[in-house]
């Protein structure tokens, strides 16, 4: 029993110590997705869908829930945001080449068709991020249309 108490005490000390070390938050100011929105023109309804379902992990600004203030959850969320931005960052859209933009939109289509995005872990706590069938269809149609414009070089760079 003494060993269990020692292990519990060590774990408690580690947990308390973790609360003093926080990962950097993803908090861009201003209209950080403006270039993406003006270039791809998703429309106001899809803009809301993108904001509620995608931007927290795929842009330079995350709306953090209250539980992000508790480690180790804060580290887990920071990892997910960093990983999401590595794959697609709507705030950095202007830095992507036309070929890369086309490819990213193709990946968006694939992820939505395969119900891989948004992540289930995200939709558990973000009910508004759950995509309806109609929202999925609208996002896919928008992404396909935008891809065709990139492929025809009809979107100015």
What would your notes on this structure say?
This protein has 8 helices and no strands. The protein has 157 residues and is mostly helical. The protein has one domain (25-151). Helix 6 packs antiparallel against helix 8 (133-151).
Largest sheet: none
Q: Segments where pLDDT lies below 50 for 5+ residues?
A: none
Count of strand segments: 0
Give the class from helix and strand content and strand pairing. mainly alpha
Residue-averaged pLDDT: 90
What global shape is seen?
elongated
Strand/helix succession: HHHHHHHH
Helix content bin:
55-70%
- CA radius of gyration is 19 Å
Oligomer: single chain
- Number of structural domains: 1
Bin the strand percentage: under 5%
- The total of helices stands at 8
In short:
This protein is 61% helix and 0% strand. It is mainly alpha-helical and 157 residues long.
Which key features would you list for this structure?
157 residues, 8 helices
Question: Helices and strands in order, then pairings?
Answer:
Elements lengths: L1 H17 L15 H7 L2 H11 L1 H4 L14 H15 L10 H16 L6 H6 L7 H19 L6
Helix pairs in contact: 6-8
